[in-house]
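User: Sequence recovery, please. Input:
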């Protein structure tokens, strides 16, 4: 009897079965060479996006180089990129053109230096990010802006968040970019779910009225008021002092300055001033500006109309106390 292998078709099929049965060795990930130009581009865009490069605390040159080999960003880092992109892409088109970018970049780069000075210190930045005077800074901002435009746009008229990802993570594979885009969609859904309308700024006349009330309570003209002063004049009860301190003493110095006092006393439906990060809805719920989501949302533990009655009573007590003080 002839062997089954003598038939060409059977032999090929048997060989295919054997190949399928033998486990294949995993393929090594593609090695991407990061040139010096791409490293410089990576550092520039990291500074623009995050306010630092991310390797400032590394001690050796080898450790500093590791950021260029990162294939994907950590979740919180990608969230920061998404927040910046949301500010860039104001119309939600998914693309940013050169006009939008230049206008935003002039402001953003100054923000980056402020962030760097606060978080890592200007001295920790690379030499190419150093400058000596305000005039040097203006020239630097102009040059950096030009380089970023060339980097992100090239010959294109606009760029996407994917273009930024490819520069920030030069070793990112297609699967890595896909995963980071997925995270961005999740971030977007979270923002849409929590976002509320930005509370309007209190009219100037009413803000000045709150300032007058503050001056009444600030007996020693120190520019701040102690909780004891507010208790003694009937603005708050003694058992409320700790709650009010935790809620409104935003810088943690144990007293309320003018702006903190005005934020505490701000009428329902407003925020006290342009830079205030706290306000309330028309229904009385406390609203806060969430820097991670880059939007206004209802404060944790608040309900739609939470706090309206208590705040109204406090504001009425302040107005009565001030009126009595003026009569006296």
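Assistant: Recovered sequence (328 residues):
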């Amino acid at each position: 009897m002839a062997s089954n292998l003598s038939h060409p078709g059977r032999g090929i099929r048997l060989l295919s079965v054997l190949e399928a049965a033998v486990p294949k060795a995993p393929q090594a990930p593609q090695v991407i060479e990061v040139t010096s130009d791409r490293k410089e581009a990576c550092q520039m865009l990291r500074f623009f996006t995050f306010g630092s490069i991310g390797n400032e605390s590394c001690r050796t040159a080898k450790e500093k180089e590791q950021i260029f080999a990162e294939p994907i960003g950590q979740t919180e880092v990608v969230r920061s990129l998404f927040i910046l992109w949301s500010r860039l892409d104001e119309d939600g088109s998914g693309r940013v053109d050169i006009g939008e970018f230049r206008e935003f970049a002039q402001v953003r780069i100054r923000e980056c230096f402020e962030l760097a000075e606060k978080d890592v210190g200007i001295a920790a930045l690379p030499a190419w990010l150093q400058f000596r005077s305000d005039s040097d800074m203006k020239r630097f901002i102009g040059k950096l802006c030009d380089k970023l435009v060339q980097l992100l746009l090239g010959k294109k008229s606009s760029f996407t968040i994917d273009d930024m990802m490819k520069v920030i993570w030069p070793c990112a594979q297609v699967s890595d970019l896909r995963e980071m885009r997925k995270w961005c969609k999740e971030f977007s859904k979270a923002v849409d779910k929590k976002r509320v309308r930005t509370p309007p700024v209190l009219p100037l006349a009413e803000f000045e009225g709150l300032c007058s009330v503050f001056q009444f309570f600030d007996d020693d003209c120190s520019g701040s008021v102690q909780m004891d002063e507010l208790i003694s004049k009937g603005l708050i009860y003694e058992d409320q002092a700790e709650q009010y301190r935790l809620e409104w003493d935003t810088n943690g110095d144990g007293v309320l300055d003018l702006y903190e006092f005005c934020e505490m006393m701000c009428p329902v439906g407003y925020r006290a001033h342009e830079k205030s990060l706290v306000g309330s809805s028309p229904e009385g719920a406390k609203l806060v500006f969430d820097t991670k989501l880059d939007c206004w949302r209802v404060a944790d533990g608040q309900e739609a109309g939470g706090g309206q009655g208590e705040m109204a009573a406090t504001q009425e007590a302040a107005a009565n106390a001030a009126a009595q003080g003026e009569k006296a």
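The chain has a mean pLDDT of 80.
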